[in-house]
Amino acid sequence: MELFHAIILGLVQGLTEFLPVSSSAHLVIVRSLLNINDAHPLAFDAVLQLPTIAAVGIYFWKELWGVFVTALRFVTRKEISNESKTLLGAIVVGTVPAAILGLLLEHLMEDTFRSIVLVAGMFALGSILFVVAEKYGKKDGVLSIKKGFFIGLFQSLAIIPGMSRSGMTISGGLLNNLSRVDAARFSFLLSFPIILGSGAKKMFELAKSGVLSGAYGNELMVACVVAFIVGIVVIRFLMKFLEKHSLVSFAWYRVVLASAILISVAFIK
């Protein structure tokens, strides 16, 4: 992999991790367009999630610190407010589905799930879900542990490139009658443990293989720095955007991109 390619991948990751357009899908597309080949593409892309989740940690540090303190108080059996207890419980139960499904289907993520045709199909399917969620979500409810689990089921769909973690969880939140902003905020908090765990696991695998000690490691580091800087900007943009706008504009983008992919594949064949 060239340094230029690493910078591009970091830029794409930072731009698309939090927007409901699927970072994994865009990384697959960019790798295909630029003919980027390396020995560990899935691991590289997974590790790129670490700097973006670090951006989440900085932007939502107060909320995450509150969750951490709540967990400590729960373990030590100290008094916890109902609101804090609900948020902690929703994050815990919401993380379970994606963790289990990710481990069970990890082998498919290496090849089958990185098909560009599958990506196009998931772009279209996810767009339909966005429209449904915007139309039928009442946007006047509050978070509960039960809703956290339901949203977690939507998060588990994000292992398929094209579905989008933020898109699925925000849609799940809307279908559970959360406002867009509340759904987005919970989406970010819910993403923290699963992305941190997945990225750390892949980082350990790469370190164990010894590839991080050479040029590959340097390229990954550069990509991570780019992803981190861009990620912070995009988080702020999305939270402001969702205050006044719906997911439908992203749905249109996904449909157009899916159509372009399918037409390109048909033309090439």
Care to describe what's here?
The protein is mostly helical. It has one domain. Helices cover 78% and strands 0% of the residues. The protein contains 13 helices and no strands. The chain has helices at 3-16, 23-33, 41-47, 49-59, 61-75, 82-104, 106-109, 116-136, 145-156, 165-175, 180-209, 215-244, 248-268. Helix 10 packs antiparallel against helix 11 (180-209). It starts with a helix and ends with a helix.
Question: Which characteristics define this entry?
Answer:
single chain, 269 residues, mainly alpha, 13 helices
The largest sheet is: none
Oligomer kind: single chain
Shape: globular
How many structural domains are formed by the residues? 1
Spell out the blueprint of helices and strands:
Layout: H1 3-16, H2 23-33, H3 41-47, H4 49-59, H5 61-75, H6 82-104, H7 106-109, H8 116-136, H9 145-156, H10 165-175, H11 180-209, H12 215-244, H13 248-268
Helix pairs in contact: 1-2, 1-12, 3-11, 4-11, 4-12, 5-6, 6-9, 6-11, 8-10, 8-13, 9-10, 10-11, 11-12
